[in-house]
Write a structure and sequence with these properties.
This protein has 9 helices and 10 strands. Strands 2-1-3-4-5-6 form a 6-stranded mixed β-sheet, with helices on both faces. A hairpin with a 2-residue loop joins strand 9 and strand 10.
Length: 317
């Protein structure tokens, strides 16, 4: 469902300049690392080469930008703020290199779950919003994982007080009890598709299913009534503090990071040099035993993404 939401966002972004009379913009900028879906279009936006190699050739118009991961900054920055600024400047450089008139949109996870809950430095998102506005590039926030409270805000873009032009949501909208996703856009974007001649045409087999929509409404009501977003923020801070305490004890823990109950732990061979674990280390075998009763986790390339036990997780449990 999230894949379809992101596919729809890309289609809207590419058709937007044609509705406004600007025509040429079709390229999509994406960050290295994040995963945006499995369908034929968005699969080229993220993931690794190994995931995509069976399905080449790639669709045209994908532009790859640095991932603002402070722990493994591609620019070798010493601080999250410096890394954020350099990554944002790199995106502006890419826009100028390709020509602003060719760029339709930039898509990114505000907090990258696929990069093990990597949180960009605070300057990053305000700079990205300013750059997109400057060059007429639509900003798409992929909130499929982060939306509806996972990071301690209803939507993770709220941490930086920015408003994207389009937003995609899925998992949290129904807490995954039933399949539902949505592509949301600002009035400024939707108005371009007003009128019979400009209608955005798309049909999905189960699109707008009333049972799933009702489940979403009930789910959102529970989230608001039981203050689960606030709980995610409070328990997440406590959880992260405890994880950082473990880092002081266990040299295998390189980094603990995240917001709310979207948390990640990166395991390393050497904390100072951030060397990755040996390929022949069978650490994943023990993870289910360690985490089965307390944490939902996802392992990737010798890193562990800790997702917590739903929003009802408390400090005692």
């Amino acid at each position: 469902m999230g894949s379809e939401a992101n596919e729809t966002a890309i289609k809207i972004a590419r058709s937007y300049p044609k509705r406004t009379g600007e025509n040429g913009g079709y390229k999509i900028i994406r960050e290295s690392g994040p995963y945006h879906g499995a369908t034929g279009g968005v699969m080229w936006l993220g993931g690794t080469g190994a995931i995509r190699s069976d399905y080449e050739p790639a669709i045209p118009g994908m532009v790859y930008a640095p991932q603002p991961n402070p722990y493994r900054c591609q620019f070798g920055s010493n601080s999250a703020e410096e890394c954020a600024i350099k990554c944002a400047q790199a995106i502006e450089d890419l826009i100028l290199l390709h020509g602003p008139e060719t760029i339709a949109a930039l898509i990114a996870e505000p907090v990258s779950a696929s990069s093990i809950a990597a949180v960009p430095g605070d300057p990053y998102w305000p700079m990205i919003r300013e750059i997109c506005d400057k060059y007429g590039v639509l900003l798409i926030a992929d909130e499929v994982i982060t939306g509806f409270g996972r990071t301690g805000k209803m939507f993770s873009t709220e941490h930086w007080d920015i408003v994207p032009d389009l937003m995609t949501v899925a998992k949290g909208i129904t807490s995954s009890y039933l399949p539902l996703a949505a592509t949301v856009c600002t009035t400024g974007v939707s108005e371009v598709f007003a009128g019979e001649q400009n209608t955005f045409k798309q049909a999905l087999t189960f699109g707008g299913h009333p049972v799933c929509a009702e489940a979403a409404l009930a789910n959102i009501e529970i989230i608001e009534q039981e203050k689960l977003v606030e709980n995610s923020a409070n328990v997440g801070k406590y959880f992260l503090k405890k994880l950082n305490g473990l880092k002081e004890i266990h040299p295998i823990i390189g980094d603990c990071r995240g917001l709310g109950l979207l948390l990640g732990v990166e395991l390393v061979k050497d904390q100072k040099q951030k060397k990755v674990l040996p390929q022949n280390l069978d650490w994943q075998i023990n993870c289910p035993k360690l985490f089965a009763e307390t944490v939902l986790y996802y392992s990737q390339q010798k890193k562990v993404s800790l997702l917590g036990h739903l929003f009802v997780l408390s400090k005692k449990r």
